[in-house]
Amino acid sequence: MSALFAGKYNHTLDSKSRVIVPAKFKKNLGDTFELSLGLDGCLYIFPNERWEMFVEELDSLPATSKNVRALKRAFLANATECEIDKQGRIVIPADLRAKAGLNKELVFVGVGHKIELWAKERFDEADENLSIEEMAEDLTEYGISF
Question: What top-level class would CATH report for the domain 5-142?
Answer without folding.
Answer: alpha beta
